[in-house]
User: Fold this.
Amino acid sequence: MIFTSLSPNTQKNDLFLAIKSILQPWKWNSSKYQKKFVNNFNQKLQLKNSFTFDSARSGLYIVLKSLNLSKNDEIILQAYTCVALVNPILWVGAQPKYVDCDEDDFNISIKDLQKKINPNSKVLIIQHTFGQPAKLTKILNIAKKNNLIVIEDCAHSLGTKYKNKYTGSFGDAAIFSLGRDKVISSTSGGVLTINNQRLLKKVKELYKELPSPPNFWTFQQLAHPIILAIVKPTYNFLKIGRIIIRSALLIKLISKPIQESEKFGKKPTNQTYKLSGILHKVANLQLQKLDQYNNHRIKLAKIYHTNLSKKVSPPSPSILSESIFLRYTVLVPNPRTIYNHFLDHNIQLGTWFDNVIMPKDTDLKSVKYELNSCPNAQKLAIQSLNLPNGINVSTKEAKTISKKLNSFIDNQFK
Ligand SMILES: Cc1ncc(COP(=O)(O)O)c(C=O)c1O
Assistant:
């Protein structure tokens, strides 16, 4: 079976490392792995001050906290995003100001950004959606003119370059995600990078105060790739795999990527930790494969681009030279029907972002999104479908998926 999500980066050596690590709990809190990972991360991305967390949202929460924002201060971010990005804004008591996105690159619309900036605007979050860099030169100019603090959201764009420089090095700060479906993964995890010396002192202070996660949480993260290695071969066979996932979640053998309360803008009481020692080791192994993973994603994106018919609305050709394609996203009239049809044929497609603020059941009112304030983002959300392009998907499989999708769409439009 072919998968878009469900531990898409896990290879044999990652699985062996997870098994070995879970059997050595005395190493879970070892501090020696952190330094190695942070050094390698900084070196690879040419960064200086990186801090590791249990998730990217925790990193964002800490940098926003360091800014001492007040209740009328607005933080600008694009719609067509994840609730995990919005929530830290609510948690520090500031206001999210949603800006529409462009259809060509799924990133923030410059036109709408200019309309929505006002005297309360303090921070601009620039998301590089699906690994495609935003139109940085123009956006950074606007930010400078309006005295905005810039935070890059590189949750999807680890390894993406803009004008020969890695994303994450353009703003005052940047967050990266090491979440389960991200560019590289330690099941959960995140990195905050600070490029502005004025923010650094306060962030260092706040970071020092943070606890390490409970051992049980670390266990859940290590168990995730192991459980999924059992789930995947039986995912469709009598739906055994799906039953295993549900049961594992129910008995808390593995953790959910987003807690129920987060869909209502709430901060789960147990959140905001440093990353556990051992998960740095897991992330480090993945980091060594970063270029290999991204080159593979780009290779498959090009195959899709060549083989898909125009009726499928593939991404704009201009992004082929820039994106690392964390997700290869096409626009179709009925993504759910296609998703279900393909799943019956042993191909799991992806459903990012199926809501203007994903996941699908996010309570938009709780996260202060006003309906119809970002029409493009809403339109994209009901049309988006991601095709698998992770390291475990072959070029032959990408060609087969292209053919199947072309003919499915052709039949629908007969
Ligand atoms: C665009 C975007 N930003 C930020 C995040 C938050 O990342 P994390 O899950 O590591 O908190 C996500 C998570 O899916 C995301 O999609």
